[in-house]
Amino acid sequence: MGGEADRVDDWTLRPARDLELAGADRHRSYQRESGLVANVARFVWWSLIRTELKLLHRLEIHGKHNLPRSPSFVLVANHASHLDALVLGATLPLKLRDQLFPLAAGDVFFHTPALAAFSATVLNALPVWRKQVGAHAIRQLRTRLVDEPSIYILFPEGGRTRDGSMRPFKSGIGMMTAGTHVPVVPCHLQGTFEAFPANSYIPRLHKISVTIGQPRTFEQLENRRPGWDEVTNILEHDIKTLANSHPANSNRDATQ
Amino acid sequence: MGSKNPGCRCDHGSLYSQRLEDPASTGDSHLEASIRDHLIGYERAFDHPLSVTIVVGVVSGLVIAGALIMALRSWISEDSYHQAFRWWRSWCWLVGVIFVPVLAGALWTMLAVMVLSLLCFREYARATGLFREKTICAVVGLGIVLVTFAAIDHWQDDALFFAMGPLVGALIVIVSIPADRPRGFIQRIALGVLGFALLGFSLGYISNLANVVDLGGTGTDYRPLVLLLIVAVELNDMLAALIDRTLGHRPLLKNTNPRKTWAGAIGAAVLTTAMIVAAGGWLFQGTPVARTGWLIGLGLLVSLLGLLGDLTLASIKRDVGVEDVGATLPGHGGLLDRFDGLVLVPPAVYHYLSLALGDSGPLGSEGPHRILTGGWGG
Predict the structure, then answer these.
(1) Between B49-71 and B262-283, two packed helices, what is the crossing angle to 10 degrees?
(2) Domain boundaries, position B206
(3) N or C: which end of chain A has fewer CB within 10 A?
(4) Packing angle of the helix pair B292-320, B345-356 (nearest 10 deg)
(5) Chain A within 8 Å of B327 (Cβ-Cβ)?
(6) What residue in B sits closest to A11 (Cα-Cα)?
(7) Which residue in chain A has the smallest CA separation from B316?
(8) ipTM strictly over 0.95?
(9) What part of B 101-130 touches A (C-beta under 8 Å)?
(10) Taking Cα atoms as reference points, which of B12, B13, B91, B7 lies closest to residue B52?
(11) Is residue B182 a part of any domain in this protein?
(12) Three-state DSSP class for residue A62
């Protein structure tokens, strides 16, 4: 009879977590896992988007060295346009495309089955249902962020600005990251409001720049309301500081 | 060549036979027209009365099943009704997407088999976790496309098609080496090769069957044969399930699938074989396969391998620990849950019929060759 040394480890077969889901249910699920087709679709999509942003919007990226080298981490920024997530995604290497999950408004990007299929397959977006975002959904997003190599793009304002000024941050980002070792990278987007504001249907050829700040971790904070609020306040302050350091805003301040 | 099948009104097979016997006797333009008819011509969809019988029988069965479900609505629970309705609706879709390409032409049949293979492999890869190995999945996907190409091209009596098995298997091994991840190497390779063997190569034999233009010299094309094969496998599965539920007691393999019983397996084998003997006697009339012994052998082969295909997927599902491999078909599970019985049958039937029909070459060898790679002279 074979001894301990002769034993072979059982093979670990891990089915897709979303195996029992189909169609729109699967596309809207936080358990979604994608395969080869989505992988190729995202390669084509992000290649086109990067080219488009560089050629037509003369995209400038400042502070790229601040990006963590590997997932998991969260990119947070001010939100003025549907271009914002694309600009932030374009700052990352193409090889990270399958780990990149923009958190997108469910009522906009996952409203119909066709839109949900596009948002899930091509954008790899995860839905946030703004009017009914519950603690359970946030917990699922937090678990995925901690357990698996993931990159979230999140806009703590909860929606696009209508006048170009930054709105107060909501505490969802704190609920996801307080008490974890996951770095949060504050970013400031400039020019997306002018290029494609919320009340416009066609983007304009306006220059866009993104400034990437130093990442922060919040493992020392408690995963409770005071910790969430502190995370939110710190990040809001960081992004406002990045905004004020931008030459366009400095000049405006100087002239005012 | 054998005599014409009196039940068949078709004569396009004779054109290819004529060319094989005397290439100079038929103009190239006529041959091209015949190839076009075979590949994309739907006019001959119902040339053989067996095709008509199968289509009418299946559509009638669906209509009766639908009416029964509606009629029983007040007698059964709402849940049971919705489950039965979803099952019936999925069958309606399936019959459409299977029958239409088969009847429409050989090219549509081959492309439909390719799509079926790709979708089944996708479910298999997601169930086993192989989908995380993108390079292997890409090679299997490429292999399925190449198998389809080989079937359409029909190069040298299917030599290119047969070569795809070992070549794609070797390619799966080769592309896995540069990843420099020896841990789990055997598992990844084995999952990839098994997936391609069952869902790419084996299912691809249906495409190969679609190259038949003159079955045993009877002038009958692939349509009634392919329809009979698919319907027989699915009926075998349904009959076994019905007998399992009503008469079955003793489990066949209790760890693999406790619902499968000896009674179901034997009952389905008897009924499926009887059906194939009856339909085959009509289809193969005038050929050596029309002998009762060969037809009983064919019936048993279809029934037994249909059951084994079912048990193969059941073993994979138990190993992985999932109930279904997908949720594509409401009331059925995944596509592979529905077509599992089909994965082992096509190669066995192809080689069995090639053997039984004698020394005229592999099945379909009378058809046009090298359609895509240049010239059909071969």
Answers:
(1) 140
(2) 12-114+195-356
(3) N
(4) 160
(5) yes
(6) B187
(7) A13
(8) no
(9) 122, 125-129
(10) B7
(11) no
(12) strand
Best residue in A8, A19, A40, A148 for a mutation probing chain B (most B CBs within 10 Å):
A19
What is the residue range of A228's domain?
Answer: 23-248
3-state helix, strand, coil in chain A (%, to 5): 45, 15, 40
The answer to whether position A6 is within a domain reads no
Q: Which residue carries 């090889």 as its tokens?
A: A95
Tell me if A13 is assigned to some domain.
no
Instruction: Catalogue the E-assigned strands of chain A.
Output: 60-62, 73-77, 100-105, 126-128, 151-154, 184-190, 209-212
Determine the residue of chain A that is closest to B134 in CA distance.
Answer: A36
The partner residue sitting opposite B322, judged by closest CB among A11, A19, A36, is A19
Q: Does B324 touch chain A (CB under 8 A)?
A: yes
- A207-235 tens-digit pLDDT: 999 999 999 999 999 999 999 999 999 99
pTM, to two decimals = 0.86
For B215-257, how does the pLDDT look when each residue is reduced to its tens digit (9 = 90+)? 888 889 999 999 999 999 999 999 999 999 999 889 999 999 9
Interface test with A, best of B126, B329, B337 (most A CBs within 10 A): B126
DSSP A119: I
The CA distance from B131 to A133, in Å, is 31
